[in-house]
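In response to reviewer comment 3 from the previous cycle, which asked for concrete evidence that the modeling workflow produces usable outputs, we include below a single protein chain processed end to end. The sequence was submitted unchanged, and the resulting structure tokens are shown without manual editing.
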Amino acid sequence: MVSPFRTAALCCLSTSLAGACSSGDGAQNPPVFGGEGAVVTKEQPLPPASSASLADNGPCKGPAPQSDTALFDDFEDGDNKAFKGFEREGWWWSASDTTPDQKLLPAKEQFAAERLPTAEATKDNLFAAHFAAEGQKEWGAVWGSTLAWSNGGIKCPFNASLFEGVSFRVKGKGTVRFYFGQPETIGADGGGQCKERCYDSYGKVLFLTEQWQEVSIPFDKLQQEGWGTQVRWDPTRLIQISFKADPKVLPVDFWVDDIKFLPKSGAAAKAP
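The workflow returned the following structure tokens.
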């Protein structure tokens, strides 16, 4: 089955590159996922297309060091980067198909956390991510973050094996699917290694409610949808964390906050 969306080139994923990608002014470019004719959210210029992938050679031949930072993002810094864990990198992005007169929130080049309504905010929790889509009729819309172990310009799949799941707060209207991308399920244009029937990643469907709910998803409750190439779940090889909405479930309008990994029983994961 053809993927519901395809992704744009990912910067600095080849292990043969010695340095980080940068724009003309020396600023580092965030790796950004997009699609065939997709609307892509990015904060800096998209790097040139590349066939580079998170390949099983060089520094990425074996699993990266285990991450021990539980918080992925609470959006309180207001930017488009995930919380800066030790040797961890992530950039938030959005994409949709090319259906005319569609709605996508955040819009292109405008990803930023939104201020929570006064009645829902506290002095320690002022911001959250707000996503919405309506009118897409081809493959729909997706919102997510890249996910990588990063050290000295080298990027490899993220190792979450110290954890046993993920949790976040969410509220809204509609149905979305949360998922993790692995190199084996993501195409080369998104930094993966999949060659056919790509983008059937391990995830779980979420039925949204208008009140905030805490969602905890153990890794052993994640599953592929079944239309793509079958792969084994491997928490040592993660390259995306995302939410998607197919045309059949649109429109959707939802908020997400306090995304964090769940430590294994007895494991000591660092909190911010």
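Residues 58-263 form a domain with the Jelly Rolls fold (CATH 2.60.120.430). We consider this sufficient to address the reviewer's concern, and the full set will be provided in the supplementary archive.
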